[in-house]
Amino acid sequence: MEQSTAVHTLDSILAMEKRYRAAFINSLLGPKPGNLVGTQNRRHQANLAIMSSAFHLGASPPLVGLIIRPDVSPRHTLQNILDTGYYTLNQLNASIVVPGHQTSARYPEEVSEFEATGLTTEQIRQFPAPFVRESLIKIGLKLLEHHPIKINGTHLIIGEVQLVSVPQQAIGDDGHIDLVSADAVGITGLDSYHRLEQLQRLSYAKVDKDPEPI
Amino acid sequence: MEQSTAVHTLDSILAMEKRYRAAFINSLLGPKPGNLVGTQNRRHQANLAIMSSAFHLGASPPLVGLIIRPDVSPRHTLQNILDTGYYTLNQLNASIVVPGHQTSARYPEEVSEFEATGLTTEQIRQFPAPFVRESLIKIGLKLLEHHPIKINGTHLIIGEVQLVSVPQQAIGDDGHIDLVSADAVGITGLDSYHRLEQLQRLSYAKVDKDPEPI
Q1: Do B158 and A139 lie within an 8 Å CB cutoff?
Q2: What are the chain A neighbours of B206 within 8 Å (beta carbons)?
Q3: N or C, which end of chain A has less CB nearby within 10 Å?
Q4: pTM across the whole model
């Protein structure tokens, strides 16, 4: 049975209503990682913002990229990162989707999203930014590079992984972390949360043989 | 019951064996989108490479970021994008995980990964890069910016969405695309593929009320 296909061009995309377009374009690439970004301001007040824009930049050295849009709710996050040089990424899991989502409300600067949503700050080894206790996989990052993306006014933040906390039992012999056991959540579009169902792991691809389940 | 937690610092991460570290660091952020990147070289030979490094950069204008590592298998992709200025992202789905994964084998330049893996090229409206027929959500992109990331030798490619093909029935009234119905796949770590299970969609967060399922 032939399915009906919608084809859009740049013109028809630009003609979409603004929130419709945001939902549509945000859905195109597939599932995105969900992370709560923890920062503090110069007065040590904790801030927390959910983001789905973190991406792996490299393992050696361990680097993470993060796109921050200054025009939406986590507007204190960028300033805090630039002011202090440190931030945390706390992986979203199914137990904290609702308070995590709620961190995107536009709280005034004097309100900590931790207190407003009931999530708990955690200090790990004097790292100078707050972690989220309820998250299972936590990363402490040091700001290395800040690239303003002129084309749309967003900001690319590149951070070096300086501290990682992961449940021991989720780490495999080969370093792979079982994110299903860590109850990881993916985000699609602007507001849709998904659990992961294991499909398969596949062996390193070689030209002369088919990949095998591992 | 208290779970055992592994805490790593930058020093202990840098001391990990190389592939162990790659698997570990690639797992930290959570699920990543899976896309097959279609390009052609100047002689119009089609190339296809699986990547999990695409990210949403903005909806207005519609922009996608892509990190390309020249030192791993999809090494022709970067050159083709720079040479021709166009490329496609074809969202991975559960039916094409195995041939999609196999595109990461180091085929010589004269071998098209389409032919080697059995995936089918599709031409849409004279767009100057090949799409993947078996993919359900396809994006045609024009290269806008190329930022070499000096810190680790990767490349950030920023593209403008010029053409999109999506199953009509997956698009909601609000522009959100139901990626579960589109059989979308997330990637964790280097080689682990996951189906999505719908958890919930949540209403736009406001300061004075809790988010509600939508």
Answers
A1: no
A2: 105-106
A3: N
A4: 0.96
